């Protein structure tokens, strides 16, 4: 979004976004607010209206007022969501810890060390105070690029986590693991059930429709992916023809190359079968190994945990390729509609 904003308009947008991030404004709320601000700034830029007409003379005051409605009452609305994210992580970590125990301890006698949780909670409080006292005022006092703030904060955060681990390394606060798993598991199931019912009543589906900000983001992402894909296609077309020329063979015509791209699309379209095979090949050996040395209950629980963890990784990897292939289809469909090759289409888009 910031690519279309220039100068002081872009600076205002980036600083406001940075202020909202370090004020821990809910992501969805911030997305909607930033989209509204983006529209205002882009319109002002196009009309050559001074940015002060929108934000006034004091940038810091503007940011505080822009997010002033996000008070503690608004934060409490998102408490169940944040608690769900915490409980989900706790449940997965405790399940992993259960299967990594060296002793052959069953679920009802296993112990959990909560010292890292307490250390992490204390660390988050410290960093919240640091953000409130130091970082947010620095946004308006120092001319530092936003990326420097994020990178610097991540580096300090990583160092603090390392220090926290070292300080709590010899500290052990053991409590029974079963209550932690039970509470976190019940909350996760209850939250998902209530969320599904609420969404179905409001949207007619358990999936929430994308917000205006998300729709804008998806649209921009598709346009960017198409741009990258077209650039890649042109480079590959030229590279293949260079190789053919070196071998003394006839170069590919744009139409022939388009058919090759179509063949790649069709091939990847049916690759989901191999994805299932690969997923099963990775999951099954570890589950079988656990079954040979553990009880049936432990094996089932371990299988559920590893499926959840691994499916997330696989979804990210294969969904990326799926999106890339969908971009190929979009380009091929546009070429079919216009009766041109992908190279001609790329040249029309200025990627030739």
Q: How would you describe this structure in keywords?
A:
globular; 14 helices; 352 residues; mainly alpha; 2% strand
Gross geometry: globular
Low-confidence stretches: none
- Report mean pLDDT, rounded to a whole number: 85
Radius of gyration: 26 Å
Sketch the major β-sheet.
2 strands, antiparallel
The beta-strand count equals: 2
Whole-Å distance between the termini? Answer: 25 Å
Spatial order of the strands in the main sheet? 1-2
At a glance:
By secondary structure, this protein is mainly alpha-helical.
Task: Give me the secondary-structure topology.
Layout (H helix, E strand, L loop, with lengths): L6 H16 L4 H20 L5 H4 L3 H8 L5 H6 L1 H22 L10 E3 L1 H27 L4 H22 L6 E3 H27 L8 H35 L7 H16 L2 H22 L2 H43 L3 H7 L4
Antiparallel strand pairs: 1-2
Helix pairs in contact: 1-2, 1-7, 6-9, 6-13, 7-8, 10-13, 10-14, 11-13, 12-13
Q: What does this protein structure show overall?
A:
The chain is mainly alpha-helical and 352 residues long. Helix 1 packs antiparallel against helix 2 (27-46), helix 6 crosses helix 9 and helix 6 (79-100) packs across helix 13. It has 14 helices and 2 strands, in the order H-H-H-H-H-H-E-H-H-E-H-H-H-H-H-H. The mean pLDDT is 85. The protein is globular, with a radius of gyration of 26 Å. It is 78% helix and 2% strand. The longest helix has 43 residues, at 296-338. The two termini are 25 Å apart. It has a two-stranded antiparallel ribbon with strand order 1-2.
């Amino acid at each position: 979004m910031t690519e279309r904003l220039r100068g002081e308009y872009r600076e205002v947008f980036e600083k406001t976004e940075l202020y909202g991030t370090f004020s821990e404004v809910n992501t969805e709320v911030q997305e909607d607010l930033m989209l509204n601000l983006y529209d205002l700034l882009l319109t002002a830029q196009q009309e050559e209206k001074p940015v002060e007409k929108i934000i006034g003379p004091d940038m810091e005051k503007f940011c505080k007022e822009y997010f002033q409605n996000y008070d503690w009452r608004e934060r409490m609305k998102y408490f169940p969501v944040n608690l769900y994210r915490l409980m989900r992580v706790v449940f997965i970590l405790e399940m992993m810890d259960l299967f990594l125990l060296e002793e052959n301890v069953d679920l009802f006698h296993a112990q959990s060390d909560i010292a890292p949780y307490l250390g992490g909670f204390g660390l988050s409080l410290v960093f919240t105070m640091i953000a409130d006292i130091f970082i947010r005022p620095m946004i308006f006092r120092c001319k530092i690029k936003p990326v420097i703030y994020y990178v610097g904060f991540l580096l300090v955060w990583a160092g603090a986590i390392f220090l926290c681990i070292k300080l709590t390394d010899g500290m052990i606060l053991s409590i029974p693991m079963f209550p932690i798993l039970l509470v976190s598991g019940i909350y996760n199931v209850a939250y998902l059930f209530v969320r599904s019912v609420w969404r179905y009543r409001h949207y007619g589906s358990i999936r929430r429709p994308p917000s205006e900000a998300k729709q804008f983001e998806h649209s921009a992402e598709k346009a960017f992916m198409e741009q990258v894909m077209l650039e890649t296609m042109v480079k590959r077309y030229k590279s293949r023809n260079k190789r053919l020329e070196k071998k003394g063979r006839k170069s590919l015509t744009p139409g022939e190359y388009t058919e090759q791209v179509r063949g790649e699309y069709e091939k990847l379209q049916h690759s989901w079968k191999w994805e299932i095979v690969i997923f099963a090949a990775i999951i099954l050996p570890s589950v079988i190994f656990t079954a040979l040395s553990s009880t049936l209950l432990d094996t089932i629980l371990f299988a559920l945990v590893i499926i959840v963890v691994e499916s997330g990784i696989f979804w990210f990897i294969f969904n990326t390729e799926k999106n890339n292939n969908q971009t190929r289809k979009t380009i091929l469909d546009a070429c079919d509609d216009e009766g041109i090759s992908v190279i001609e289409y790329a040249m029309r888009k200025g990627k030739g």
